[in-house]
Structures are given as C-alpha cells and as structure tokens.
Amino acid sequence: MSDLLGRLRERGWRLTSQRRVVAEVLDGEHVHLTADEVHARAVERLPEISRATVYNALGELVTLGEVVELSTDGRAKRYDPNARHPHHHLVCSRCGTIRDVHPTGDLMTGLAAEERFGFTVSKVEVTYRGLCPACAGQDA
Amino acid sequence: MSDLLGRLRERGWRLTSQRRVVAEVLDGEHVHLTADEVHARAVERLPEISRATVYNALGELVTLGEVVELSTDGRAKRYDPNARHPHHHLVCSRCGTIRDVHPTGDLMTGLAAEERFGFTVSKVEVTYRGLCPACAGQDA
DNA sequence: ATCCTACGATGGACGCAATCCAAGTCAAGA
DNA sequence: TCTTGACTTGGATTGCGTCCATCGTAGGAT
C-alpha cells in the first residue's frame, strides 16, 4: 500500500474520513480481511461508519486496482491490499488461514495454444491448498 | 462420469430417483452448472424434486470426490463432474463462460520450501482469466 | 410379494453476504 | 463562505445456501 492515499488523490478520489479509515485498515502483508472484518476495524476508529460505505470503498479500491478480491471458499469475499506486488495464495483447508506466496516459473506458458479455446488470456490465479502447521498438528 | 452410478452403488449410496436425476444432469465435458441450474434441469425430468435435495446430493457427490465445487466469481458455486480427470479452468472475465484446461508442467515445484510457511500442501488450483472469443469480439 | 425401518426427500423458515435506494451530509473548488 | 455534486447512511431487499420437523421410500429381511 505504502502511499496509497497519495495515489488515490492523484486519481481524483474524493478523500473522505470513511475512505481514509478503510484504506488504513487494509494495510500490511498477509492481510486478507472480509468486508465485515474491515467494517469492524473501521468502526473502532470511526464509530458511525456504515457497512454500505465499507462495501462501496472496497469496490472502488478493487476497480482502481489497488486491492484484489479473493473468494477462496464460497463464503465471504476477502480483500487483499497487496495488489501492486503480484502474488498467489496458500490456504489452509481446515481453518482458512491465507498466506501470500510467490511461486517461480512462468505459469502462463503451461497453457498450450490449442488449450486456450480462442480466449485472450490475461492473468493466472494459483491457489495452493493444504494444512497449516497448527491444523496439521491436531490429529484427525 | 461414465459409470458414476455403478461406483456410487458400490460405495453403499442409496440410489433414489432424485439422486439418479442429479447424477444424470451432471454429465459431460465442460459442464459447470450452479445448484439452481442443476435443479432447473432436474425438474424437467422429475418435477417434484426440491432444491434442498439437489443441494444434499451435490454435497454428497463432492464429499465422495466425484464432483468438484468451484467458486470462480464469488457468486453461486458451480459443480464440475470431471473430478476423476484432474484439470484446471479458463474463465471469461466478462460472461463467465468456463472451459476445462490441462496445463503442462509440475505446478507444485514452483513453490519453494521456504514459501510454504510450514504447510503440508496437497493440491493446486489454477484459474486462467481472460476474454472468450465472443466477448473479445464486441468492442468496449 | 409383503413388511419394516432407517435413510432420504420435502418445502418453508432461517441466516449470511452483498446490493439497492431515497434522503441526508460534506469535501473541495470558486 | 458558499455551492454543488459526490459521498454516506441504514433499512429494505435480493441471492445463495442451510436447517429442521415431517413425510416418503429403497432395499434388506421374511
């Protein structure tokens, strides 16, 4: 994120206290909050902020390319602020913990031309699934 | 799917007319129906089948490993019957069309040990995104 | 062929995530 | 300071999925 607020202002984003708080909450590595979690943290700083506003701000940040939306389980979407440094995800199948990962190699070349069905392919998302150390520890 | 019903019977699956219809609807390549779409098609053959039953049957087929659940867009989950032949997906960003693809290369080796955060990684899902020929055709 | 019974089906109520909307509020340029 | 269009609000609404009490039935036993 670093100078997210500066970049947004340059793009003509009207800077309200609500938007500022949402952007501040979404800062750091391995941050993958749901909209409700973002709202809960935003409320700590700005008690009257509404859910609708959080949804609006998140949607705009996604459109602007500053945040990526993840749906790793069919439940609530999660918002990842690390959009400026492309990466993939490692997800615990039991507890849902998510880590950012940076696999090596060109993932794009694996898909042969005759397997593209005429699509113009523009990006690849990779999700590794398994058990995190804590969940692998507990038997069963 | 081929002899899905036979395999299910061997596993002690009680074969009801409802389950048979759900299994029949989920047959073929590049089939990625939502639960509601499965229900709609099932109703054509068995008018009184309920949505709850379709959800139950789909959930069981997923547990049995005969069908995989996809959430490519955060909207309704989709059900892919091709679970016995592992594959990945190519999704149109505009219309949502999904094709099965089989990329070459070992996707697992790309993830360095120090990038695994102690996880025991058991599978990898790859989603290619882009525009299908029809959507790329229309300008805008 | 018939009976039994445990497992499956039903459908309406419920819950969660997300979106919509009309009315009120405010950031930022003049 | 004023003005205005963009933003915020919260309650209603929608979409997707699950739950649950009741009814029905597949398939083994006789």
Structural notes for this entry:
Two copies of one chain form a homodimer. Chain A has 140 residues and is α+β, with helices and mostly antiparallel strands. Chain A folds into two domains: 4-80, Arc Repressor Mutant, subunit A; 88-132, Dna Ligase, domain 1 (2-Layer Sandwich), CATH 3.30.1490.190. In chain A, 32% of the residues lie in helices and 21% in strands. Chain A contains five helices and six strands, in the order H-H-E-H-H-E-E-E-E-E-H. Chain A has helices at 4-10, 17-25, 35-45, 51-63, 133-137; strands at residues 33-34, 68-70, 78-80, 88-92, 98-101, 120-131. In chain A, the strands form two sheets. The first copy, chain A, has a three-stranded antiparallel β-sheet. The first copy, chain A, has a three-stranded mixed β-sheet with strand order 5-4-6. In chain A, strand 2 and strand 3 form a beta hairpin. In chain A, helix 3 packs across helix 4 (51-63). The longest helix of chain A has 13 residues, at 51-63. Chain A is globular and about 50 Å long. Chain A starts with a helix and ends with a helix. In chain A, 26% of the residues are buried. The mean pLDDT of chain A is 92. At the A-B interface, strand 6 of A face strand 6 of B. Strand 6 of chain A pairs antiparallel with strand 6 of chain B, so a sheet runs across the interface. The structure holds a DNA duplex (30 and 30 nucleotides).
